From TrEMBL:
Protein name, entry field: Citron Rho-interacting kinase
Residue spans of biased composition, Basic and acidic residues class: 506-529, 547-557
Region Disordered, residue ranges: 506-533, 547-625
Domain of life: Eukaryota
Keywords, alphabetical: Kinase, Transferase
Species assigned in the record: Coniochaeta hoffmannii
InterPro entries in UniProt: HDA1_su2/3_sf
Example GO molecular function: kinase activity
Positions with biased composition (Low complexity): 597-609
Amino acid sequence: MLASTRNLYVETIRDNKSTIERYSHYFTTESAGNPGEQLVSEVDDIFRRLHDHCDLPQFSDSIPALSTEAMMRHATGTSSKFSFVYELLKELKDSNILVLVLSQPGVASDHLKAIYQTEQFHYTELDRSIELEDETEALHVIHGTTDMEVFDRPQPAVDAVILFDDAARQVCPDRFPGAIVLSLVVANSIEHIDLQLPRSMDDLERRSAIGFALAVSKTFISSPHGMQEPNELAALFADYIKNPARELDWEPLALPSQFFDFYLSSQALETQRTGAMSQPNGRKRVLDGDERLSTPMKRARTGPATLTQSGYLMSDLLKATLASYSPRPQGSPQPVEVTVDQLEWMAARLSRVEQEARDRSAVEERVRQLVKQKEMELKSYKKTVATLQPKYLEAISDRGQFEIAKNAAEQRVAKLEEELAKSRTEIQALREKLTAHTPSELEARYEAVVAEREKLDKKLQSASKERDFFRDRLQEGMRTATESQSEINQLKARIEELERKANDTTVRVHEINSRHMADESRRQREEQQAHIAQLEQQVEQTRKELQTLKSNRRETRASSVPRSPRLNVMSPRTRGGGGNTSRGNSPAPFDGSSTPSSAAGQAAGMGMSFYQPPPSHPRFSHLRE
């Protein structure tokens, strides 16, 4: 139950507390009478309002007519049941599942239909024919109300049934075997209490039991704890409906046992309270703590265990106290003589202290519960504020826009009123001016106006012809421009195609030229290499020839063997044709021989004698090679 609904629910119980107590008084006393019809009617009206707080949106009987979307927002924002149904159907929207939603007719049914229509759920009425021949991967909702006369007929095979309220639970208990049945109940509310009572109970006693339980339920309603949100429960049950074989990880919330304790023990509590007011033994009274403390206590006299028999009867309180405090096994067994009066006083004081301790614990527990209640209320209020704040800001924004539009409309109305007043003034002036002229003047003015009108008609016809002419020219120009533009576009496309082809051809030409240039460069390089090889061969040949020339020339004394005798028998070369003459004084003449030795001698200088080897000598032939 939402925070705002909880407040209304608790206020309804508080405001009608006296009526419920008057009704319950007949069942807490020994009166033989029964409550009157007027009182029963008042109690039934209170219970009906409490059921409405559980089943219907807030202020459903006082708000004006709303649109479908507004009804959906109002229902899901003020009722936990509608919020649960909305979240559950939203989770099952994309599943091929058939769900039956059963509720009472009227406000609840209308708001459920608003949810179907706003979220575009495919739904049909229960009393109409249902055709599901086409298999669709979408949710199908069957909406039924308790006033439909269709429950005595065979019902469609559905996957899940949602019993929205107590009326649905009474009409449809076991009519859908095999389906998952979800009975929506607000925790700790009047419908939760009513479900815990046996159906065989008398109506008058049922009302009395509900009244006692409502008095206790206020605390639990005001400070709920350990409860899941509607969207969390919707996700949990949607997963279970999709996969029924999976185990449902959820335990139903049990009604606290305190709800019916007061009703079941009301007579016993009244009897016990009456007995507690009487004297313990009928002859002696229990002294108060102050009176006993003012009397000096005597020291307990210890001695041998001498027990005396007496016919004094102990009170029930003393018997219960002695029974609850049995001797300890390890304690001393030695008895002590104590008067019964002292024991009675000690038992009474102990009982009073224990009662005070229990009262204090109860007060502390109530304070603790009150603190928890206030904390839960604070969290609920914060959550409600967080939910309402965006809507409030949106409403303020809408109000601001409405004010702006209203001011603009008022300004337009004021401006139109001014223009209307001005027009009326002009009309009045024209009327006065019209009545001031004579009929002849009016006829003359009329003829002038007619002539002017004919003139203007001619001008209008001429202007119309010119307009038609220019329109035709303009249309022709536009058509020509369109054709020209189309031709230009075609030419542009042709140019782009030719440019693309030209670019491809140019690239091909460049590739061919590059390949030819590379081949030409490679050919020139090969020619250069061949030429270089040829030159190297020529150089090598020239070197060989030079080496040959050098090998055929006689070495000088300085470069051969210094100060060595130049004997003819020591040289492998034979002497030339010249004689033994001095080389410095009489050089040998050049005979013009074409032998290599002659050429070498000529190249080396004139006046030098050369020793030529024989033309062929087998001993030195290998050196010549």
